[in-house]
Design goal:
By secondary structure, this protein is mainly α. It has helices at about 5-15, 30-40, 55-70, 75-105, 110-120, 130-145, 150-160, 160-165, 180-185, 200-205, 215-225, 270-280, 285-300, 305-320, 325-330, 345-355, 370-375, 400-415, 420-430, 435-440, 445-455, 460, and strands spanning about 230, 245-250, 260, 265.
Amino acid sequence: MGTTPTDATAAIAVNRFGLGKRASEPLPSDPQLWLLDQIGQYTAQPPAFAAMQATRDIATNYANDREKLQTLDGDAKIALRQELNKAARLLYRSEIDARGLNALQTTTPFMEALVHFWSNHFAVSADNPPMLSLAGAFEREAIRPHITGRFADLLFAVEQHPAMLIYLDQIRSAGPDSPLANRARKRNADRLPGINENLAREIMELHTVGVGSGYTQKDVTEFALALTGWSAGGMGGKADTSEAGIFQYRPGLHQPGDRLIRRRVYGPSGEDQAGAVLKDLASDPATARHIATKLCRHFISDTPSKTAVDRVSKAFLTSGGDLPTVYRALVEAPEAWATQASKIKTPWEWLVSAMRGLDYPDLGKASFSNLLNQLGQPVWLPRSPAGYDDIAASWLAPDALVRRVEVSQRLAAKADRSLKPDELASNLLGNTLTSTTATEINRAESIQTGIALLLVSPDFQRR
């Protein structure tokens, strides 16, 4: 298959910014326009998610089940607990499969890649039954609807979502002088509620200004005090199920008084105090640089140039955090179109691009959950608020590559036997296909071996 200079940039557009080319679709004739047009075409709630439950329903059902659990003893209690945990795992896997199906079928792959980027930036981890149940809904409700708006709105949606509040132990955080603490002190001074700094710390360290921006431990503590009262309806056995899974401000938990955070005094006390801090963090120059650096690292290079980061950071600041403006600056950065692919696909990116490359119409009998577990990147399970690493070194371990070989052989075994591996390679990679990979594919003893070699080739694994 012949190629032109346009093929190279088109292949970069679909592989570096998107989720990989589908074999049955043509390369875009105008790569930058193809990417930018997707902003207006993006659908926050595509059909793949139509059957998924809202957080309110998930939390209410969960709270009702836990209430029932409190009435049982012995084997009956053990059996019901096992049944509920199994139901949470099934819900988790159904959310992953819906996410995978949408990634295969989407017509706006750049926007879906951005969803995945933001979901990892605002990572939660499905380490227990409540988070298994809520992780998918968190991405659908807090991330997806806001990636084409302002960063501040995305930030508020994330930090006020019950999944984030539960994950970072915010829902019971109480100030030492709050009404709740004062009542508790009168009953038993040895058992006082306290503040939890997890949410305040991760907002500053991971979600906004970032490490090295100059905030102090005192700032974290003061912000945590401002956040007291930000809570959500519980999901435990004694919870009021009518409130389960919704953001709530609980004045009884709030620490009264003004707060001094990053050399600025915030008052008056109450629900809006933390909101004012969050609003300032969203527009801080350090946040603009932190977000720009992460976007450039994800889409351009593990070590993005200062020029590219400055460009995207400036777009963030001058637009007031308007995310489409930020995406435009990213796409228009000359560094983003370097022909040398420096990023290696994460297991999620690799699996989705492989299935798209083989034109899977849907998941069939495949389970994204099982495959991603095998590949070493369980969805929504980074076990850290920092999310999964976004650099090549984290995904190049020998055992990780062996796992990709095993999965590529399984995918190739189910591929259309009329495919010609050399033509498929040119189709998917265009001018980015190297002669080394082309030679290896041509030497393959069978169609399936040729396809498997393509999927695990450096050309395909990089973007």
